[in-house]
Amino acid sequence: MFWCRHKKLSEVKNGYQYCLKCGKAFPVPCKHKWKRVGKFDCGTCFSKTPSSILFLYECEKCGGTRQERIMA
Fold it and tell me: Which of 26, 30, 59, 68 qualifies as a cystine partner to 64, CB 3.0-4.6 A?
């Protein structure tokens, strides 16, 4: 059976690093660069003033999303 310790890795290509000995691919985590794509005022049923603000973000590199809620 072939055992490899994956010590020598290539440069990052397509979000992966490859072992130079056996060729196994390892995903490289994204260093996100967030861009705000939406803002919503979340109110209550009995009040017209917003009780919180919801911001939506999208990563410019990988397309991942996240949200952040700020209580008013």
Answer: 59
